[in-house]
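Lab meeting minutes (informal)
Scribe: AK
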Amino acid sequence: MTADLQPHGLPAGDFVPADRQPVIIAARRTAIRRANGALKELRAHQLLAPVLVNLLADTQVPAEAVTDVVIGNAVGGGGNVARLALLQAGLPVSVPGLTVDRQCGSGLDAIVLAARLVAAGGNPVYLAGGVESISTAPLRAHRNDGGEPDFYARAQFVPHSFGDPDMGVAAENVAARFAVSRERQDASALRSHQRALAAAGAGYFAAEITTLETQAGPICADDGPRAGLTAAVLKRFPPAFVPGGTVTAGNSCFNADAASAVVVTSLQRARELGAVDGLLVLGSDTAGVDPDVLGIGAAVAAERLLKARGLSADGVDLVEFNEAFASQTLACLDQLGIDPERANLDGGALALGHAYGASGAVLVARLLAQARRIGNHGSLALALISIAGGMGTAALLRYELLAGGRQDP
């Protein structure tokens, strides 16, 4: 049994056996498209299946060698979308599937769960990530006293005694409590769009996007980033959730359809597969917070995660935060002491959109792409997402070149 490389920035002697060290060796996503738009004809499993096919091709993992498929989903119709998608992708019936729901955090938590299963041993191979088809999500209803359907727009996140605030109202609460001004929120949104446009123009997204076939033709590019957006345009948006507030449609994300997934295995198995590089999963944490300020959850989780490993945010090289709202993005980064200029190098959900269960997995796909582009061996990466109901998940990763790996053609 070989030992892992000395973890960068961690205490000396903190080694993980290579057969228990989780590593992400490939990541894919679909284009992120506005809900009820170009992907509205595809159900969740149809979004995800091509991603799984591409991951197997990218890593040359035989389909029958997959241990399990772990997928996050928030508003789907149930029925275990992971199992449905893997069979749609042509994986053998011997491969099981598990669907997890932590609302916005589902995709990242699915990857975290897979990493923890790898750490349990056995050199398994997992496909893990998330998917959301808001366009095809079923109508939802409770039964009223007479047994008739009482339709509702969103699920209840917490007991009514907690207030169960809508996401936009909670974003306003965060802006007020953590003194995040309208000007900063608008500037953050503009930066996200500009960076996403620049990244797309430079071809940074191309290698990670799986093309989807639709009746209107192939879909292989995001549609959210707006070239005509300016500070003056953003200033004209009225408050969207609270009269006199600071959160607007311009500095909030839009709902989207997308899928994203990764290959998680042990360091030992990755080397056997010939992987040339990957993101080692060093740890994760999920925290609960006051639902009234649910957007701050990611910062609490990250603080605990970094403190447990003797690290500060200054030691992290790459940061991806799910930008559901600019207010919560800035509040969390402020709490962690991270300059917003250092986060979301290629833009985030403010420009690309938020596909609920897929968004956390998109963060990881983005981090792997950025790490490969920058090529800084040993660099630390942090994925952060705040979650409906007053939660947040953070995952700490490290980019490594894997000895003996094959070079991509």
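Next up, CB showed the second protein from the same session:
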Amino acid sequence: MSPSRDTGFPRADAEHDFLRARRRQVLSRLAKWLRGEPDDVNIMLPFTEVVDALGYQSERRIGARVIRLDSIVGSVDRGRDFDRRFRPTSARVRERWERLALATRRGEHIPPIEVYRVGELHFIIDGHHRVSVAHALGLSTIEAYVTVVRTKLNPSGIRFRGDLIVKDYRRLFLERVPLTGQARAAVLVSDPWDYAKLGEHVEAWGFRLMQDEGAFLDRARVAQRWHDEEFVPVVAMLRQADLIGDRTEAEAYMWVAGERYRLIRTHRWDDEVIEAVRTRRT
């Protein structure tokens, strides 16, 4: 955003700042409609839904910090007064907004905002108007009291509200199949529903394993053995047979596992199975 103008009349400039921010918000809505973008593109991420999807672990207050404005992506109260870039969505906030803009232009002290930090993302507890004014005035940072929230999943990859669906299903999958370390990072799918199907598949694999060995295995042990004894060898065969394509490794595994049983009615893996699936594909 270009710097706000300064005519030497702070009150008039503050009024102009608000009108310009409102105009840009309306133009952004129009552009979204013309491009046919989903509704969540300009909506702030809701803090509660993000933390629920990622799995809450703990939180601690770390005090005042200077944070980047572009790292603030959401809100605790999911207010509708501002869009994703904190532009006013109506004239309802105008009086308070212009009062803050005027104080900022005059160099008056503006109290720090309050935020939750999840990974590198920040969610406003208090200070929506202050953030909106800071954006409108072309600032890049703002002072904030920060509370760090730790979650089970890393929030990387979250941009829009729709991304939370994938995170939520992945969290549930990892509760059913508690992979760790590199194994945890390797098993990824794009369609959130595939996490549910893969979880069911691993549980069935674990049940057959326990039947074969005549011993009970907890979820963590089943997850580890499935990854080491089933997933890794199968993915290696798929790479050798050039059957992964543009899928993730987990998506390729799910596809070939389904084809294997549908075509051959077996749970075993060998060259004959891979060749049958390859022949079927071509």
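CB comment: The mean pLDDT is 83.
No objections, moving on.
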